[in-house]
Amino acid sequence: MKVLVIGGDGYCGWATALHLANKGYEVGILDNLIRRHWDAKLGVDTLTPIAPIQQRLQRWQDLTGKPIALYVGDINNYDFLIKSLRDFGPDSIVHFGEQRSAPYSMIDREHAVMTQTNNVVGTLNILFAMRDEFPDCHLVKLGTMGEYGTPNIDIEEGYIEIEHNGRKDTLPYPKQPGSFYHLSKVHDSHNIHFACKIWGLRATDLNQGIVYGVLTEETGMDELLVNRLDYDGVFGTALNRFCIQAAIGHPLTVYGKGGQTRGLLDIRDTVRCIEIAINNPAEPGNFRVFNQFTELFSVGDLAMMVKKAGSAMGMNVEIDHVDNPRVELEEHYFNAKNTKLLDLGLQPHFLSDSLLDSLLNFAVKYKHRVDHNEILPKVSWRR
Question: Does the annotation count 255 as an active-site position?
Fold first, then answer.
């Protein structure tokens, strides 16, 4: 099977491309490399040093003898996109090629507009290319659990059965996104759903939780293949930030009360979920949704886990509660379903099993690369 990974130079995309290539798929990466440009403009960098994409791919081929094709360009450029698709001829398209940071989308008007233009237009271009020339291709699209928000009812997987005035129907689950980024993902979901319905396309939307970890079987083969570890206030996750703060002796900065609860999963489970979706494609005309996470934790839970693990390594870890730069509920009900991928064979890794080796040890190893000016929030939802 031929799989084109759009956004294959990014955190999830890079690990996925190597995993699929290692499993015997014929893999191509399409990426405009803008993620590196955004880091440069913000003056931030991943904790782990990342080699140029060409050097990464050459090292991969030298180690495994399994080449990965590379297409450098922007999916918002339809001519480039369709030429690349014609050249590669994918059976499946894995779409990671979007601006994925909520804080980045909330910096100002320019960043909000760029996020929505980049994400929505790029996805529309893929859908039209599939309709016109690749109607049998299966689109595996990375969504986000953030589309749902924090409703006071259980979160189903994409759809909900409701009864109103004596009649029943199954409808897309109500969306309550919390940033212009999350709104762009909602727009994507609606566009993909519509395209499947009217054109008979097939698509799987993976509403992914927060991903953690650096190592997969493939990214651990060589230091040139190592994955990103973002910790800054724009692209970094709370868990990454806590681990870096523990390593450098900075108090862990919990936003507000710390009751914000989210789904999380190991990067090793991310790549496996993609493989499962590819191997079990949606039927023509079907837009299906899988909630892609393995565990639920509050921000306060994560801070306590890092404190406990750091203390076991001899660190003196303190926890501070800081003003929340986001507009969000800090205490809420959150119960999300995630059975579909488990039913298809996902065998999860758990945070308690990987915190030391995948995060804290990397934080300690590369703590000399930490920019202490970038570990506190700089973007406010309210301004």
Answer: no
Q: Is 185 a catalytic residue?
A: yes
Q: What is the CATH number of domain 2-374?
A: 3.40.50.720
Sign of the torsion angle spanned by Cα atoms 275, 281, 286, 291? negative
For 223-246, the pLDDT digits (tens) are 999 999 999 999 999 999 999 999
pTM given for the model: 0.98
User: Which pLDDT score is estimated for 292?
Assistant: 98
Active-site residue, from 46, 48, 115, 144? 144
What is the C-alpha separation between 371 and 44, in angstroms, rounded?
A: 8
Q: How many CB atoms lie within 10 A of CB 234?
A: 21
Distances (CA, A) of 300 to 222, 325, 358, 368: 34, 16, 20, 27
> Distance between CA atoms of 259 and 331, rounded to whole angstroms?
5
Non-local CB neighbours of 367 within 8 Å, separated by 6+ positions? 244, 247, 248
Residues 141 and 184 sit within 8 Å (Cβ to Cβ): no
Domains in the chain: boundaries: 2-374
Whether 181 sits among the annotated catalytic residues: the reply is yes
